[in-house]
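Curious: why this fold?
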Amino acid sequence: MSRPEPIFVVHASSGVPIYRQLIDQVEALVAGGRLCPGDTLPSVRQVAVALGVNPMTVSKAWSRLEADGVLERDRGKGMVVATARDAGSLADRRAQVRPLVDQAVVRGLQLGLTPAQLLAVVKSSLEEKSP
């Protein structure tokens, strides 16, 4: 079964280094089951071109993920998701997302959005990004 290419999104102005954003996204894709053991990641060059970032930034992220055992180097294929690791319970995964949601909610309220408007933004984002 062919999987769609993972979609990476980086925000240069977020204050989080781009390589760290990539690491976090790959780890989340693996934990959420969107990337499975044996799945091949796009090459450093492909990701760098798609995001408009320096290839060394992507290389640093892939190297850190390899050192952490999330990715493995497969000669001829590139970087692949390593054999199954514990993705964590649903509660653990929710706990990882909660601080991000809290930040978004606080920011939306500061901007004067109502709870219904905030939910509409989240729903729209989910519709755009869900497979």
